[in-house]
Amino acid sequence: MNYIFHLLIMIEVYTILALSLNLVVGYTGLLSLSHASFYGLGAYASTLLMINVGFNFFPAMICAIIITAAFSLCISYPALKLRGDYFAISSFAFQIIIFGILYNWVDLTRGPYGIAGIPRPTLFGLKIDSLQAFFTLTTLITGAVVFFKYNLYQSPFCTVLKAIKEEEQAVISMGKNVVGFKILAFAMSSGVAAIAGSLYAVYITYIDPTSFTLDESIFILTIVLIGGAGNFKGTIVGVFVMLLIPEILRFIGLPDSIAHYLRQIIYALILIIIVRFRPWGIAGDKELGSV
Amino acid sequence: MDEVLALNNVSKSFDGITAVKNVCISIKKGEIVGLIGPNGAGKTTLFNLITKTHQIKPDAGEIRYHSHKINGMSDYQIARMGIGRLFQDVKIWGSLTVMENLLLARADTLKENMAYRLLFPKRYREIKEKNTKEAEKWLAFVNLEEYKTKKAKGLSYGQQRLLGLARLLCNNFELLLLDEPTSGINAVMVQTILEKIQSLAQWGKTIFLVEHDMDVVKQITSRVYFMDNGEIIATGKPDEILSNPLVKEIYLGC
C-alpha cells in the first residue's frame, strides 16, 4: 500500500511539473530544456527558507514560487528577445549553470552532499508525516494547480499563447506585446515548477543536485511531448504513461542495475514510436502540438 | 485634411544592397492610396519598415503617424498607435475559430479571464458583451457569420483574406496597410473585397495598399505611388501613372 501511495505522490508531483512545462512548450511553442532547474530552485529555496530562516512549509513554498519566477526572468528576458533555437540553447545553458551553482556553492546548498532532514510540513499544528497525510496534502495542492491550469488554458491569455505559437507576427500586428506574453508564461511555468520542487523536498526530506539535472529536464519534456503538447489531458496521460510503464519492470524481478538501463531503453522506444506514428502525442491535439 | 502617414526620405539597405531609397510618401485621412511596382521593388519592405515587422527599421529618414515619429517605437506599439496590417500571406490563426480570431484582435480581450471576472464582475460583463458585439458586427460585414464557430483554417483562401480584414476592423485600426488584398482570389470575391475597402474609406479609415492588379488599382485608389529598385519613380492619379511611359516600360511591359 505504501508503494501505491508513493507512486501516486510522485505522479502528482510530475503532473504539476508537466502541466507547468506544457504552458511554455505546448502553448507558447518554446522549447525549454531548463524545467528541472526551476524544479530544483523551488526545492532548494523552500528547503533553505525552512531550515535556515525557520519558515513554515506554506510561506516557504510561496516564497520559493516568487524566487523561482524571478529567476526565470534571468533567462527569459534576454533570451526571449531572440528567436526559436536561441531560446532552447539559452535554457540549456541555464540548466547547466543552475546545476553548477547547486553543486558547487557548498556553503549554501551543501553541494553534492545534499540537504538531509528537511522538516515535514505542518498544517494548523498538525504534522504531516504519514504517507496518507502527505498524499492528501499533495492531492489538495495538485488539485489546486490543475484547477488553476485548467482555467488558464481556457482563458484568452492561453488563446493568445496559441496564436503566438501559430503566427507570432499576426499577434504583434494586433498590438500585443509578444515578448511580454512569453516572459509572463515562462515565469508562471517556472513558479508552478517551484511548487513541485517544494513538495518533493518535504516528501523525500532529502535533496541533492542530481535530482535536478538536464536528464530530469528532458524527462519532463518527454512527458509533455508523449502525452500531447498544448493539451491539458494529454499532459496528464503523459505523466501516467511515463511513470507507470517503467514500474512494470519491478514486478518482473530484474536486478536494479539492469532495470535502470532497461527503463532508459523503454523511454527511448516510447519516444521513437510516438515521434514516428503519433507526433501530436498520445492524447494530444493533432492541430496544435507535435514533437 | 489630416495627414495620417508621412514618410520622409526613408532609406534601408541590407548588406549593402539598397532596398528602399529616399522614399517620401504622404497619405491623408480617408484616402485609398496604391503602391505599385515590379516584384522586388521594395514595396513589402516599405510596409515592413512602417510596421517594424521582423524588427527592421530605417537606416535614414523618419516615419510619422499623425505627426508622431514612429520609427524607434517597438512593433506592437506601432500597432497600438492605430496602424493595422493585412499580410500578403494573411497569417490567420488556423487552429482557432473564426470568432476567436476576431476576439483576439480586440485590445481588451485579455480581461475576459476568471480573475478579472471575480474582481470586477460588472466590468467583465461589459467588456465581454462589447467584444462579442464588435466581433459579430465585423463578421457580418465580411459575410462570415455562418462560419463563426468553425476553425479558421477551414475557410477558403478568399474567406481567409476577408477574415484578415475583419480582424483589422475588429481592432479598430485607423490606417490599414493591405499587402495584395486580392491576390489569388476569384473575380466575384475580389469585387466583394473591393466594395468592403471602399466602404471603409467612406467611414474615415485610411488605406494604403500594395496591388499588382491594375484594374483594382484603377477602381479604388485615388492616388498611386510607383516604386522601382527601392525608389518612388512616379506619383499621381491612377490613370496618369498607368499612362506614364516609364511605368509602361518598366512595369506594364508595353
Description of the structure:
The complex is a heterodimer of chains A (291) and B (254). Chain A has 291 residues and is an all-alpha fold. Chain A contains 13 helices and four strands. In chain A, the strands form two sheets. Chain A has a two-stranded antiparallel ribbon. A two-stranded antiparallel sheet of chain A has the order 2-3. Chain B is α/β, with parallel strands linked by helices. Chain B folds into two domains: 171 residues, Rossmann fold (3-Layer(aba) Sandwich); 60 residues, no CATH class. Chain B is built from ten helices and ten strands. The longest helix of chain B is centred in the middle third of the chain and has 21 residues. Chain B is globular and about 65 Å long. Chains A and B meet through helix 7 and helix 8 of A and helix 2 and helix 3 of B.
Topology record:
The complex is a heterodimer of chains A (291) and B (254).
Chain A lengths: L1 H26 L7 H19 L3 H23 L5 H20 L1 H4 L5 E2 L5 E2 L2 E2 L3 H24 L1 H11 L1 H6 L4 H27 L1 E2 L6 H14 L4 H13 L3 H5 L3 H22 L14
Antiparallel strand pairs in A: 1-4, 2-3
Chain B lengths: L2 E12 L2 E12 L3 E5 L6 H9 L8 E6 L2 E2 L5 H7 L1 E4 L11 H8 L8 H6 L1 H21 L15 H14 L4 E5 L7 H16 L3 E5 L3 H7 L2 E6 L2 E6 L1 H5 L2 H8 L2
Parallel strand pairs in B: 3-8, 3-9, 6-7, 7-8
Antiparallel strand pairs in B: 1-2, 1-4, 4-5, 9-10
Helix pairs in contact in B: 3-6, 5-6
Structure summary:
Chain A is built from 13 helices and 4 strands. Chain A is mainly alpha-helical and 291 residues long.
